């Protein structure tokens, strides 16, 4: 029996009202295999996904491999400087061509030596001259739509998708003084098989309500009571974000509660008194502090498990600091406190979603971003709900 019923679709209505009246989303959408497959087809296959930072492939021929929505991909910079993303599955017999990173001029399948360019075109296919109606131009790698935004590589399986950048317009004024394209990323680390749903991850990242409750002491400088939602959300927006004020200037998410790295030099005094926390669903969580930005890239694996890639962005002057390695270690140690506390909480939340007593809870005003996220999700659920497209087409025809 399917979970994708009219009753479930109707039940989403209670989660997209004003934050003062809204209920949390139905627990079953966090635990169902069928529902995750629905999301893979209708959200992850149609929305912009984050593949990583463009600085990871600065030179022509640089490439890395990644898995997005279960698909093995190559992301490469070609000789003209363009960033391309395409399948890493050979068009001959389906072998994965590579699963590493590096620099090359072409990609060669080790099975039968088919050769592909940095843009996915098939350049060579040995001993295929006797194969009827074989045209190399028709056997290139399936490519994804690519857009660079603030130094991030965004890709979309839907080549007819609308541009990503315009959907970020509400948030971009809060990022301008960080000049994110010029920031440096010392590297990332990946936490694998974390035991909760991808939506639980998104909700926890942008949850102002738990800020100095779960994270008391280490985040008392950035209290829940100073959360704010400065720009009204609209259906054409692809970002849900909040600001969160500090009790002192240049706060930092570490044991000192003060910024450790050089402050971004163009920040206004107002910007030095706050952080921002943003969701760009379905894969990117992003935040700012006076001395750094940070990002989490979310990869769902099952309804109950995800991988998360985490990275930090600093002003270029930070790496010139003679104590950078020690400051970085201190900064990361502070973040790990938050990560461990959040891991415990989100693990238990996911456990609770399986309970027969799992609630349709109510929201605090400090959780406004959750209702915005619900609206983003429900609009896409409705658009792609089984049978609904036929109904919409019939209504328009009538």
How would you characterize this protein structure?
With about 400 residues, this protein is of the alpha+beta class. It has 2 domains: about 5-45 and about 170-385, Alpha-Beta Complex (Naphthalene 1,2-dioxygenase Alpha Subunit, Chain A, domain 1), CATH 3.90.380.10; about 50-155, Rieske [2Fe-2S] iron-sulphur domain (Rieske Iron-sulfur Protein), CATH 2.102.10.10. The chain has 7 helices and 17 strands. The strands form 3 sheets. The chain has a 7-stranded antiparallel sheet, with no helix packed on it. A 7-stranded antiparallel sheet has the order 11-17-16-15-14-13-12. A hairpin with a 3-residue loop joins β14 and β15.
Q: Numbering strands along the chain, what is their spatial order in the largest sheet?
A: 1-10-9-4-3-2-5
CATH class of the largest domain: Alpha Beta
Largest sheet: 7 strands, antiparallel
Number of helices: 7
Mean pLDDT metric: 95
Order of helices and strands: HHEEEEEEEEEEEHHEEEEEEHHH
Secondary-structure blueprint of this entry?
Blueprint: H1 6-11, H2 33-44, E1 49-53, E2 62-68, E3 71-77, E4 83-87, E5 101-103, E6 107-108, E7 115-116, E8 122-124, E9 143-149, E10 152-156, E11 188-194, H3 198-205, H4 211-214, E12 227-228, E13 240-245, E14 274-280, E15 284-289, E16 292-302, E17 305-313, H5 324-353, H6 368-384, H7 388-397
Antiparallel strand pairs: 1-10, 2-3, 2-5, 3-4, 4-9, 6-7, 7-8, 9-10, 11-17, 12-13, 13-14, 14-15, 15-16, 16-17
């Amino acid at each position: 029996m399917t979970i994708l019923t009219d009753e479930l679709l109707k039940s989403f209505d209670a989660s997209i009202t004003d934050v003062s009246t809204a209920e949390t989303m139905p627990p079953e959408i966090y635990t169902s295999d069928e529902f995750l497959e629905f999301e893979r087809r209708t959200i992850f296959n149609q929305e912009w996904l984050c593949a990583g930072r463009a600085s990871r492939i600065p030179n022509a021929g640089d490439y890395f491999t990644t898995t997005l929505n279960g698909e093995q991909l190559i992301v490469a910079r070609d000789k003209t400087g363009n960033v391309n993303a395409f399948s890493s599955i050979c068009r001959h017999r389906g072998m994965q061509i590579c699963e590493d990173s590096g620099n090359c001029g072409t990609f060669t399948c080790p099975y039968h030596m088919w050769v592909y360019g940095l843009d996915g075109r098939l350049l060579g296919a040995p001993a295929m001259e006797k194969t009827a109606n074989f045209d190399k131009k028709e056997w290139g790698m399936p490519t994804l739509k690519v857009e660079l935004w603030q130094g991030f590589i965004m890709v979309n399986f839907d080549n007819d998708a609308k541009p990503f950048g315009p959907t970020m317009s509400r948030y971009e004024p809060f990022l301008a003084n960080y000049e994110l394209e010029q920031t440096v990323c010392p590297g990332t680390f990946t936490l694998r098989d974390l035991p909760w749903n991808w939506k639980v991850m998104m909700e926890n990242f942008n949850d102002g309500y738990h800020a100095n409750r779960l994270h008391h002491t280490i985040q008392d400088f950035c209290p829940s009571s100073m959360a704010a939602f400065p720009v009204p959300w609209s259906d054409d927006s692809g970002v849900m974000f909040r600001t969160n004020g500090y009790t002192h200037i240049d706060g930092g998410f570490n044991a000192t509660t003060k910024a450790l790295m050089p402050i971004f030099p163009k920040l206004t005094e107002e910007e030095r008194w706050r952080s921002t926390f943003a969701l760009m669903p379905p894969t990117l969580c992003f935040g700012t502090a006076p001395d750094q930005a940070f990002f989490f890239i979310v990869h769902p694996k099952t309804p109950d498990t995800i991988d998360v890639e985490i990275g930090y962005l600093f002003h270029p002057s930070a790496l010139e600091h003679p104590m950078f390695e020690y400051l970085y270690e201190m900064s990361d140690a502070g973040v790990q406190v938050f990560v461990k506390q959040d891991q415990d909480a989100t693990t238990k939340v996911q456990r609770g979603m399986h309970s027969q007593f799992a609630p349709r809870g109510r929201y605090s005003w400090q959780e406004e971003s959750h209702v915005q996220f619900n609206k983003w999700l429900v609009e896409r659920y409705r658009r792609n709900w089984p049978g609904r497209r036929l109904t919409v087409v019939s209504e328009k025809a009538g």
